[in-house]
Each structure stands twice: as C-alpha cells, then as structure tokens.
Amino acid sequence: MKKIYGVIGDPIAHSMSPVMQNDCFQRNDINAEYFAFHVLKESLSDAVKGFKAIHLSGFNVTIPHKTTIMPFLDEIDPLAQAIGAVNTVVNDDGRFIGYNTDGSGFLEALRKEIPSFIDKNMLLIGAGGAARAIYYTMAHEGVPSIDIANRTPEKAEYLVQNCPYPVESTVLSIQGAEENIAKYDLIVQTTSIGMHPNDDRSPICLDGLKKDAFVSDIIYTPLETKLLQDAKQKGARTQNGVPMFAYQGALAFEKWTGVLPDTERMQSIVLKQLG
Ligand code: ATR
C-alpha cells in the first residue's frame, strides 16, 4: 500500500517540501506520497490524532507548531527535547517520535564546505529558535566553543545558560561582535535581518573580516543577503540557506526510509522552486 507523508504548518501553501520530498520518493522507487497539510493552531491536537488514526508514516512540522506539537507525541529525541522544537515525526509502529533535523541539517550542509568546522573560531548571530537549534546541535556534536551575538544579549545569555551540552561561549552585543570580527573563521547568521522584503539590511558590519573566513546565512529569500554580499566583497566564502533546507529534508527522509537521498539534487529542486 502507498505510504503517506506530509508537512503541517500555517501558512503552508508555499512550502517547498512536497516537491522536494516527492522527487526523493520517486528517485528511490519508494511507493509513497508527501502532502502539505494546512493545520491551524487550534486544530493541532486533532490533526495529530487523525494522522495516528490513518497510520500516516511520518511528517514534518513547521511554523507555528514546532514547539506546541511536543506534548502530543509519544517520544521526543533528547536533542529535540533540549532544543525545544520538533520538525520531523516518525511513525514507529504506531508511536509518534519527534526529532529535530534543522540543527543537524545545518551542520551537515556546513560539513560539506568545511569538514573541520569543529575547531574554527565561530560566531553565531541571533538567539531565536533557529539559533537555538544550531547552537545546541553544535554543542551536542562536540564543538568546544561558540560565541554568540544578539540585539538582546540577555536572550543569548539565556540560550547559553540552558544548553545541556558542554560548550564555551562569550555572549556579545552586536557592537561587541563587530569589534572582534577579525577573530572569527566562521560566522553563522540566524536572525530575520536581510530576509525579503527587508533585504537591504545586514545584522552586522563585517569591516575587518578575515579574508579566509566563511560566512553562512540561513536565509534563502533572497539567495544572497546583504551580509553575504558584504562577505564576498571581503573575499570570504559564503553559503546561503538552501543547503540547510535541503539537508534538514534529507535527514528527515533518512529517518523515514533509511535512505539518505541525493542532497545536490534536492538543492537544485529548491533553487528551481525559488525561481
Ligand atoms: P526564529 O525562530 O526564526 O529564529 P525568532 O525566534 O523570532 O525567529 O528569533 C528572531 C531572531 O532575530 C532573534 O535573535 C532576534 O533578536 P532579539 O532576540 O533581540 O529579538 C533577531 N531579530 C529580529 N528582528 C531583529 C531586528 N530588527 N534587529 C536585530 N535583531 C532582530
């Protein structure tokens, strides 16, 4: 029988996951189909119950349900629990198990570009949900030190204090990070600054950036934020949010099927959808 997968969120109409995941099922000869399900906040519990009743094989979770879905699941992976957000649910013989592949998707995308990223001097910008997923996953992975800068440093302090994995961190204001910018090999940008339609702004001034630094922005609309343009101008290598998006999907697909799909192909499908 054909297996059914999907993604739940609100809004969900423009999700790129169905095209990307359905291509993976086809390429791997798996008899399954992936749908976008529009689920409102007040219907989340009913939706999960319904998915159980119809034996949905697995699903992704996106805004605004990543945290609120947690009490409705049967088990949560410890890293997802620490992050406080689930983006992937696996139906394991009738039990719904929640995982977070956002942070690990980012890490795998980064590892492709910088295999030895663990030892780099790293600056994370932002202290929201995405920053938390990346910081906690990096700490879980054994990254020894990550500095973090945020408009509201107290939020970054809170994120650091609550991390259950050992990692050294200096919390900085944006200005403080700018003063120390020459020290960093790797800068990871997770705020919404630079995202369409505010795409003319950068969250940080890169004057003094090392020429061989690597700057990653998790935004993919636009494909090249002001931050990445600035970084390129300074001679740095850059990465946008497309690889992270493809890898979080690839790792979800792997949890459902045991097969790690072709991430290069997934990225080209995402780029095509972005136009
Ligand atoms: P997400 O879940 O996508 O990470 P979020 O939890 O709302 O989103 O976090 C947004 C991040 O972008 C935060 O780091 C936020 O900074 P504050 O903690 O100071 O609010 C940052 N951010 C959003 N708008 C910003 C702005 N106009 N200037 C600077 N930082 C901003």
TrEMBL record:
Residues 111-192 form the Quinate/shikimate 5-dehydrogenase/glutamyl-tRNA reductase domain. Its EC number is 1.1.1.25. The active site is at K66. Pathway: Metabolic intermediate biosynthesis; chorismate biosynthesis; chorismate from D-erythrose 4-phosphate and phosphoenolpyruvate: step 4/7. It comes from Niallia oryzisoli. It comes from the Bacteria. Shikimate binds at S15, M16, S17, T62, N87, D102, Y220, Q248. Belongs to the shikimate dehydrogenase family. Involved in the biosynthesis of the chorismate, which leads to the biosynthesis of aromatic amino acids. Catalyzes the reversible NADPH linked reduction of 3-dehydroshikimate (DHSA) to yield shikimate (SA). It catalyses: shikimate + NADP(+) = 3-dehydroshikimate + NADPH + H(+). Signal peptide: none annotated. Residues 7-89 form the Shikimate dehydrogenase substrate binding N-terminal domain. This is Shikimate dehydrogenase (NADP(+)). The keyword Zinc-finger does not apply. Homodimer.
